[in-house]
Amino acid sequence: MKALVVHPPNKGVEVKEISDIDRSLNGNEVLIKTIANGICGTDRGIVSGLLKFSRPPTEKNSLVLGHENLGQVIDKGSNVQGLSKGDHVVSIVRRGCGKCSNCLAGRQDFCETGEFVEAGIRGLDGFMREFYIDNTSYLVRIPYEIVDIAVLLEPLSNVVKAYNELMLTQRRMIWWCKDGSYGCKNVAVVGSGPIGLLFSLIFSVQGFNTFVLNKRDPFPTEAEIIEKINAKFINTTKGQLPYVIDVLIDTSGYPSAFIPLMNKLNKNSAVILFGTTGGEKFEVNADLITYLVENNVLLFGSVNASKRDFEEGVNYLTIWKYRYPNVLNKMITRVVKPEEASEVLYTKPRGEIKTIISWV
Question: Which ranges carry the Glucose dehydrogenase C-terminal domain (predicted)?
Answer without folding.
Answer: 148-357
